[in-house]
User: What shape does this take?
Amino acid sequence: MAIRTMNYSAAIAEAASYCKVDVIASYPITPSTPIAHALNKIYVNGGFPKFITVEAEFSAISSLLGASAAGARTFSATSSQGLMLMHEVLFSTAGMRLPVVMAIANRAVSSPLNIWADEQDSMSQRDSGWIQLYCKNGQEAVDTVIQAFRIAEKTMLPAMVCLDGFYITHSVGQVDIPDKDKVAAFLPPYKNPCVLDPQNPLTVGSYALPADYQDFREDLCADVEAAQETIVEVGKEFGRVFGREYGLVEYHNCKDADRVIITLGSVYNTIEMVADALRARGEKVGVAHLRSFRPFPASDLRANLAGKHVLVVERDISPGGVPPVYAEVSEALSGTGSTVSVAAGLLGGREAKKQAFESLFERMKQGKVKGWLCSKDKK
Amino acid sequence: MKFAVSKPGTTVAIKTGEWRSQKPVVDTSKCIKCATCQNYCPEGCMGTSGQAPDIDYDYCKGCGLCAQECPVKCIKMEHEIKMVGKKKQ
Assistant: This one.
C-alpha cells in the first residue's frame, strides 16, 4: 500500500490492471476518456493481454459480452451517450449472466448537449439487471472497481461502478492504491460455469418460449436482490484486507438525527460538510450515502431511517413522474412514519453551494420539501 | 442462477418443415437436372446435384426460391393443409 498523489482516472485504470483483466474494449467519450486513455497506456506497456479498439460503444459492450462468455475477465469505461448506445446489450449481458465490470463516468444526457456531471445516464439503465455501485470520491472508485469484480463474478451479474464525471475522473488527489499481490489474492480467478468452448459447443442466451421466459427473469430479479448479501460480505472482506470497509449505505450521524439527507455520488461530500457544521450548532441532522442503488437496500434503509424526515437529493429526473431514487426510498420507508421528500436538480454540472443544503435542512423543519434543487425559477 | 443455454443440434428434434404453408412439388419429367434449385435452396434440402430434386420435407420451410429460380419452371408451390404445432399429421 502506498499513498500517491495522482489523477483518479489513472488510479482506477491501475486498480483494474491489478485485477488481472483479460480483455478491455472502450470507446472514448467525455468524461470517461481519461480512464480509457490510462487503460490503453497500461495495455501498450503490457499490463493487459487484449485491448479491443472499437468503432462505438455498442461494439465495446458487445465484444465484452462475447469475451466474458468465453471466460475472460472484462472491463470498460463509458459515459452518457455511450452508455445509452449500449442500452440494448446491457440487458443481454445481465440476462446471459456475464460478470462484465464497467466504470461509468456519470454525465448529463442530450438534448441539449452537455458534458458535465449528473446521474441521468446510469439511472436510465436502472432496469437492465446490472448491479450499480456509486462512489463519492476517488478512493472509493478505486476500491469499488476491485470489489466489483469479486461481487460480479460471485453473483454472475454485471456491475457498473458509477463515479461523477470531472469531480472524480479529472481530479487529482491522494489515493491509496492497494497492493498488487493483495488484490490478486483478494480476487479468485474468474470461472464461467457456462463457458463458450469450441470443444464443447453450446449456445448462450438462447431462445425462451412463453412457457420459460418469465422463469429466467424471475431468477434474475431474485439474484440481483440477493446480491446485497454479497456486496456486504465483499465490503467487509475488503475492510479486513485493505483497512477500508464498505457496505450498502453509509450513514453519517444518522442514529439520533431527526432530519437526514440521503444522496449518491460526489455531492455527498458537500452535504456532509454542511451537516457537520449544523451538528456543531446542536442540530440533529445526518447524511447517508446510497452506495448500492441496484440492488436497492430497502430493508437496510428501513432499519436505519424509519420514522425520520428523509430528504433525497438526486441529480436525475423522470419527466412526468417522480425521480427514481425518491421512488425507491419512499417505497422502502412507507408505513414507518417517515416523511420522505425530494430535491432533484444539479443537472448538467450545475454547482451547489453549501448554502443550498443549509437551506434544505432548514426547510425540512417545516415538513415536506418541494421543488427543484438550485433552480433559477424562484417560484 | 439460471443460464439460458442450449446444445447444438436442436433441429434434430425440431422439424422446421412444420413452418411451411406452401410446398414445392417437382415435375421430374420436365427437370433438366441443372442444380439451380439445389444451389439456391437456403436449407440445402433439395437433394444431390446431377439428380432430380429429392426434397427433404422435414426441413423445407416453403420459401419458394426453388420454384422462382427454376429455368424450366418444373417446380410448383402447392397449398398445404396440415396440423400446426404437432409432430405428425
